């Protein structure tokens, strides 16, 4: 009898890719995989997500991709702190479509929904199908989210917004400045945005299990906290947590290009560990201002080091490099620098022997790709959980330094130059590189035979099978 797991990814490339890595792992273990998708540019406001899904579908012919029929007048996804509320409404509107799809699918053993789509668990509960959540960030972010509704204490009128930079204490985590928390909880506590976030977070335990995009040794304290009864107040219990990060498709799931990207050939001609790689995510929401782009350019040029820099226009569209960068910059740096528009194959660049450091926005997929490549990093967080990721990268993980200017809204050229030199020239940089190499070794071990991530996946599949068998026995008894 074929075993089927249905995946319900989130509407962002950064959420979709980890779910597809999970799909690859499920296929390796003999499961059939179906993916239910919401694909509607009228909802997302762009075609990037649909294009990414198309590339992956072509690369994974064994996976069945099903686009849910569109609903009438769907809510459009809002930017910024209002995103979660609009997303929750969208998922609710599509619940009937998901229900119909699951009813039409034979022998669904389990459904795994994206962490943004917890509203869909109502469908799985109604149908009696085990429902799990895929948390696409790390264990520390999950531990923070699980504790946020309770961490201020009952009756405490202080809001997170009022705390400013004051530290907030979480079990299993270093103190987190309130200003580093998710934007939604820094809103007015009476706002719909804040209430939607807290309602969503209170549902975290209401699932049969949570698959987390990390490996245990990278975030040992946070993983231990998630398994500690003190993580939630009395009467609430965290479901099983499965750390299944760094699956077999890490970095390649976006679909292989027909031709090798030109930047890789350029890297081939550079000395080992000599190139600064700057890239700020795959979604286009991390664009820098024109002023900031000029500061980065000036700092790179003054550093004298080789660089590969992915540039996006401040307001989207095709960047005009001559207009955005300082006069003559491209000509003066042509011997040791390369500027790429919009996109580069990040995972492949990070794995290249020429790459010496990675300037990153600290999105979790980027963090894991940097860890897997053993590359020390320079942190430049921009939104969502990236500020909290930065704290861990610089602190407990010890594989990154921080660009401090992001807190003032502008990283100046002098700091860019100074931090690049720190990583590539100083003793502190050599220490960062050594710790990055240790984490790389641990990442490889996590997915090797007997490794922690493989063991976690086996536990998850065992739970799925156990629940399926119990469901079948109940059906026979009825």
UniProtKB/TrEMBL annotation:
Keyword Transferase (UniProt): yes
Q: Which GO terms describe its molecular function?
A: glycosyltransferase activity; UDP-glucosyltransferase activity
- Say which species the protein is native to: Hordeum vulgare subsp. vulgare
Q: Know the name of this protein?
A: Glycosyltransferase
Record's superkingdom?
Answer: Eukaryota
Presence of the UniProt keyword Transferase in the record: yes
> Do you know which InterPro entries this protein is assigned to?
UDP-glycosyltransf_plant, UDP_glucos_trans
PANTHER family listed in its UniProt record: GLYCOSYLTRANSFERASE (PTHR48048)
Keywords attached to this entry? Transferase
One Pfam family name from the record? UDPGT
């Amino acid at each position: 009898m074929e075993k089927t797991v249905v995946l319900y990814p989130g509407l962002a490339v950064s959420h979709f890719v980890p779910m597809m890595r999970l799909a690859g792992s499920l296929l390796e273990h003999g499961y059939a995989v179906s993916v239910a998708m919401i694909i509607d540019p009228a909802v997302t406001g762009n075609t990037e997500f649909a294009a990414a899904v198309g590339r992956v579908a072509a690369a994974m012919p064994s996976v069945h991709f099903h686009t849910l029929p569109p609903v009438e007048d769907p809510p459009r996804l809002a930017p910024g702190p209002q995103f979660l509320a609009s997303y929750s409404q969208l998922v609710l509107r599509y619940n009937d479509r998901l229900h119909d799809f699951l009813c039409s699918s034979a022998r669904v053993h389990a459904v795994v929904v994206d962490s943004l789509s917890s509203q869909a668990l109502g469908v799985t509960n109604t149908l009696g199908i085990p429902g799990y959540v895929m948390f696409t960030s790390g264990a520390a972010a999950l531990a923070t989210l699980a504790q946020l509704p309770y961490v201020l204490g009952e009756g405490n009128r202080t809001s997170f917004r009022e705390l400013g930079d004051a530290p907030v204490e979480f079990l299993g985590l270093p103190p987190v400045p309130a200003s580093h928390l998710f934007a939604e909880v820094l809103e007015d506590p009476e706002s719909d945005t804040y209430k939607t976030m807290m309602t969503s977070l209170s549902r975290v335990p209401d699932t049969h299990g949570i698959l987390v995009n990390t490996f245990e040794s990278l975030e040992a304290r946070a993983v231990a906290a998630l398994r500690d009864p003190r993580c939630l107040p009395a009467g609430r219990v965290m479901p099983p947590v499965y750390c299944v990060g760094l699956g077999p498709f890490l970095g390649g799931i976006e679909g292989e290009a027909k031709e090798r990207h030109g930047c890789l050939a350029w890297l081939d001609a550079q000395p080992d560990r000599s190139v600064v790689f700057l890239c700020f995510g795959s979604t286009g929401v991390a664009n820098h201002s024109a002023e900031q782009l000029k500061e980065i350019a000036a700092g790179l040029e003054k550093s004298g080091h080789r660089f590969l820099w992915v540039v996006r226009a401040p307001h989207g569209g095709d960047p005009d490099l001559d207009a955005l960068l300082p006069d003559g910059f491209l000509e003066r740096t042509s011997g040791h620098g390369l500027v790429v528009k919009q996109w580069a194959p990040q995972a492949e660049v990070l794995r290249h022997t020429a790459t010496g450091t990675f300037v990153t926005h600290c999105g979790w997929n980027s963090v894991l790709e940097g860890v897997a490549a053993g590359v020390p990093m320079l942190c430049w967080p921009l939104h969502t959980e990236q500020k909290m990721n930065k704290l861990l990268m610089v602190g407990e993980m010890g594989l990154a330094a921080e660009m401090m200017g992001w807190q003032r809204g502008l990283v100046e050229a002098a700091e860019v130059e100074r931090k690049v030199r720190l990583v590539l020239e100083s003793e502190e940089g050599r220490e960062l590189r050594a710790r990055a190499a240790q984490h790389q070794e641990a990442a490889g071990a996590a997915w090797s035979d007997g490794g922690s991530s493989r063991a976690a996946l086996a536990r998850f599949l065992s739970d799925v099978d156990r629940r399926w068998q119990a469901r079948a026995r109940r059906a026979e008894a009825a």
